[in-house]
Amino acid sequence: MQNNNQQPWWKNSVVYQIYPRSFQDSNGDGIGDLQGIIDRLDYLEELGIDAIWLSPVCKSPQDDNGYDISDYMDIDPMFGSIKDMENLIARANEHNIKIILDLVLNHSSDEHSWFVEAKKSKDNRYHDYYVWRDGVKGELPNDMKACFGGSCWEWVEDLGQYYFHLFSVKQPDLNWDNPKVREEIYNMINWWMDKGVGGFRLDVIDQIAKEPDLKITNNGPKLHDYIREMSRETFQKGDLITVGEAWGSTPSLAKLYSNPDNSEFSMVFQFEHIGLDQEEGKEKWDLAPLDFIKLKKVLSKWQVALHGYGWNSLFWNNHDLPRIVSRWGNDKEYRVESAKMLATVLHCMQGTPYIYQGEELGMTNVKYQVDEYRDIETLNIYEERTQKGYAKEEIMKSIYAKGRDNARTPMQWDSTDNAGFTKGEPWLKVNPNYTEINAELALKDDNSIFNYYKKLIALRKQYPVIIDGKFELLLEEDPNIFAYTRTLEDTELLVICNFYGETIGCTIPEQYKKDKELILCNYKQSVSEEVLQPYEARIYLMK
Ligand code: NOJ
């Protein structure tokens, strides 16, 4: 049964995120590339996904692995060429898979020709493409801090001015108040649309309307005007999926972003659930145990608030986040069970699920020596905290738990050298567990995490209640169980998951003790309806 086809296609779609430099290398240089992705399209079709979100592949000095673009209309040679991209779009289409590009519009690289020109003089026509303040060397315009450490302001001696950068010094922020910047961006987006891409993910989009003098970064006053204008000038001319990265989003802002009138985006990534295992008011590196009750309440709040008014994105993982099975599951004795349980919790909610490469294999976090990490954020926090006097073990504990390279280790394809990712030297060390955790083994095993994801994706296509049903959280205060229902007309789905590694009693509410059909479970056999084994997850259809 297909979903009501009046709906946008992305409402019953599942998106797979590829971090291109770590997915598949086809030419032996140790870095994944577009041809490598083409070579793996059969695998992705087998999984059943509808679209691929590619982290940036445009030309870039790679200071932040491509999130620092020096030419928006060219592909970085390390990944291939424009021809390869056209080929990828066409070949993916043959597999019914759309390609979603990552648009980094808050900042460019300092090696972008616009910035090279902008730095030449105050009256250069590109000077105003960036955010500048006059000043005196050593007297910063204010104390705003960049995300990768240090000040947001960088001095340019020849101009007697500071430029603003929310991320590294090599990522100067674009000035969205300048209509010429917006026009260049819209032309570029339309150019990619003409090439047949299926949509865009918009990097830190809630920061584009910053007001540095007021120390406003997220949700600046002109943000939604700019987004609506961009949508009108570009996205609305196609049938696209668009997803904005919006760390500062709230459910009411998300209703604007994902307004069903299509005036902004299809949806946003919100991160409220992602911050629930860090000390309140501190940084992600300041670890705290997960507040499970809060996790349920937060996810439920988003489900309820957007139902009928907007659309959720559903994700545990991306290229910036640690591996979920290591984070909130158990990557040792219950790796398989807990990975499937976490997938169940997420995939039965309302919204568009995103699977990050390797999540479908239950890939895990890594513990490397400092000099084996490559991520700018990880290396900078190590330096910063060392200088502040933190003990090395404490810093490493944070990096093991939250470092971005956890997600970026090469995809584990098989048990051959370097997990079949490259014939050369991988740019980042492969997780040593690749001989036990890899795609080749997963495809052969009926009980693998991969095959469970495949079933979850198939269920989404089969049951409209998973797409459109109303969400209700059950057992809100239960310290172990994540349970909820989805209801659409007379169809009701019941999801019950044991979020932890102990066997527990399943205190299912009376009205659900009646006749029901178990449509998926991560154990071959349940002990009984009243008992949940470690990380047991069940999906029932009520009769
Ligand atoms: C968010 C991206 O996901 C991250 O990887 C990147 O470092 C920053 N934006 C800066 O572009």
Automatic annotation (TrEMBL):
Keyword Transferase included in the entry's annotation: no
Signal peptide positions (record): none
Organism domain of life: Bacteria
A molecular-function term among this protein's GO annotations: alpha-amylase activity
SUPFAM superfamilies: (Trans)glycosidases (SSF51445), Glycosyl hydrolase domain (SSF51011)
Gene3D superfamilies for this protein: Glycosidases, Golgi alpha-mannosidase II, Oligo-1,6-glucosidase, Domain 2
Residues of the Glycosyl hydrolase family 13 catalytic domain: 17-408
Keywords: Glycosidase, Hydrolase
Family: Belongs to the glycosyl hydrolase 13 family.
Designated name of the protein: Alpha-glucosidase
Organism, scientific name: Vallitalea guaymasensis
